[in-house]
Design goal:
Elements lengths: L6 H8 L5 H12 L8 H18 L2 H21 L4 H7 L3 H16 L2
Length: about 110
C-alpha cells in the first residue's frame, strides 16, 4: 500500500485547498447534524483531507484510512454519478489520483 507522492499531482490538486483545520472543522460540522448522510462533497473533502494528512505523515494506519476514504468516494461515484466499472478499473490501483483529480475540479468549480 502506497500513496503516490508525485509533486506535480499534489501541487495541482491541493494548491488552493483550504487549510487542514478549516476542512476538518467543516467535516465535523457536517457530521454533527442529527440527520447526517454523507454527501458526495463530504466524501470528497474527507478523502482529500485524509490524503493530505497521510502525505504529510506516511504513518501506515493513516495511509490505510486515506485509502479507505478514497475507495468510498469511488464506490459512491460508481453508484451515483455514472462512473463505470471500467472507470473504476482504471483507478483501482490509485484511488488517490482520482480523489486529487476530483478535488481539484471541485475547487475550481467553487472559485468560479
Amino acid at each position: 500500500m502506497t500513496i503516490d507522492r508525485t509533486t506535480e499531482d499534489l501541487g495541482a490538486a491541493y494548491a488552493d485547498a483550504p487549510a487542514l483545520d478549516d476542512e476538518l472543522a467543516w467535516l465535523r460540522a457536517c457530521a454533527g447534524h442529527p440527520a447526517f448522510e454523507p454527501s458526495r462533497e463530504f466524501l470528497l473533502r474527507q478523502a482529500a483531507l485524509l490524503d493530505r494528512l497521510a502525505l504529510q505523515s506516511a504513518v501506515m494506519p493513516l495511509v490505510r484510512v486515506a485509502l479507505g476514504a478514497a475507495d468510498r468516494l469511488v464506490v459512491h461515484d460508481i453508484e451515483h454519478r455514472g462512473l463505470s466499472l471500467r472507470g473504476h478499473d482504471l483507478f483501482a490501483a490509485d484511488h488517490q489520483a482520482y480523489v486529487r483529480e476530483e478535488y481539484r475540479a471541485w475547487l475550481l468549480a467553487q472559485n468560479h
